[in-house]
Each structure stands twice: as C-alpha cells, then as structure tokens.
C-alpha cells in the first residue's frame, strides 16, 4: 500500500501507528523543518504526531505508585515529620534513548553524552529548565500532568519506609549504589539505569549514578516546608534542589537525605531527570 492509499483508507490513526516518521508531516506528507511546531504546508501541529502514533517514549509502564504516608525527613538534628500524598514516580531516571527521541520529535538540543556509549544510561547535561520543558511537553501530549517531584516526595520515595542512612541499611553497599570512592567502587562515568537493585517500592538508581532535579527551591534554613516552583517561568533564578548523589560523589553524598543545589540553567554530566505524576482523582 502506498502512502497516498494509506491516508485515503485510514480515518483512525492506523497510518500514524504503522508509518509514523517524525521528519514527515503525517497529514500531508511534506518534509518538516527541524524545530517547527506546525507544518508550513497544511498547518498540522507536529508534536501531536507522537501521541497519534502511539510512539510516546515515556509511558505508564515507566512509573510506580508511591503510597501516601508520614515520615521523618532529614538527618542529624534537622528532622521533620512530613506528610506526603500518593503520587507516581518513574522507576528509573530518564535515559538517553527516551530524551533523544523527545529531541528528535521537538527539535530540542540533544545533550552531549561525554563519549559514554549506551542509550540506556541516564540522560545527563540537562538543566532544571530542560526538565520542566520535558514535563510541559509530555503533559500537553498525554493530557496527564508530568512534573518533577518535590524534595520531600523524592526522599520519601527513596526511603520506601526505611529510616536508615540508605534505603537498604546503615552502610554503603556497592551492589545497590553507583558512586565514586577509592575504597568503594571508583566510578568514572554513569552506568545503565536499573543495573543495580531496586528499593522495596521498585525504584532504581536512588543512590548515586546521577543527581536528580526536584521542583523545590533550595533553602539552607529548610524547616520542613516546601517552596516549590511548578511553572516554567524563566524569571525565577533561585537555586533548585538536587537529590540522590551521582557517580562522581562519595557514598556519604548519596544517602537518602542528601541534597545539593544547582542554578536552574546549569547543566553537568552528573545531573539527570526523574519525572513524577499526580494520582488521578
């Protein structure tokens, strides 16, 4: 069947599912220019082709449901009782395979991989703003709110009911975390997501590999109250919270309560993305 015949005989998107090409307008067949949002020939919205094609690269299967609860957040003398509502969190950080597909569809910048081969490694060299752009695009394409977790949500999910330094116990375990220490592992790059064991709620890579951006604004005098940036305004340049530690940190920077901060435009080979979603209803 040729392309013209496929279009004529299809009113329900089967052509999209079988023949989708992000470089070609699915409505009129015109070759698309990189980065445009509408076909210059027929006006079709380009980014919506991904959903019509059933080719979304981040799906329901990538998320787990985190139950609601109350936990003790923080470490040392800074401990706070925090209540968290149920939400969904990605099992693993966003990979290069997923993010590169997003870039291919939207014309966004493809981040450098530092020469570390493997599309199942976590995407790196992405900023807080890049993360919010991805959230906004997925929200528009799916009709479901995609966002970054708050700092409190992230730690709650990482702990998975544990009160220990790490979600699996009190001491570093090289089988469950990827970090850098001459007495531990000596990591020199990221590894594929999901390579090590998950916590009891099914979440991988919560200790090390890449720092993960959160929606919370960083406060050195944090008192248990979240200051959250939910929109994508470029007017607020306050520091944002990072969680989890990275391949380039020692184990004591990768524990459940560990947090760092970054400016929202900063990128680095130690910063990645893990998305959250609200529970419907």
Describe this structure as you would to a colleague:
The protein is of the alpha+beta class. 18% of the residues lie in helices and 16% in strands. It has helices at 3-8, 14-19, 49-52, 96-106, 128-142, 151-159, and strands spanning 63-66, 69-75, 78-84, 87-90, 146-147, 211-217, 240-243, 259-262, 271-272, 276-278. The strands form 3 sheets. The protein has a 4-stranded antiparallel β-sheet with strand order 1-4-10-5. It has a 4-stranded mixed β-sheet with strand order 8-7-6-9, with helices on one face. A two-stranded antiparallel sheet has the order 2-3.
Could you give a quick summary of the protein structure above?
This protein has 281 residues and is an alpha+beta fold. The protein has helices spanning 3-8, 14-19, 49-52, 96-106, 128-142, 151-159, and strands at 63-66, 69-75, 78-84, 87-90, 146-147, 211-217, 240-243, 259-262, 271-272, 276-278. The strands form 3 sheets. A 4-stranded antiparallel β-sheet has the order 1-4-10-5. A 4-stranded mixed β-sheet has the order 8-7-6-9, with helices on one face.
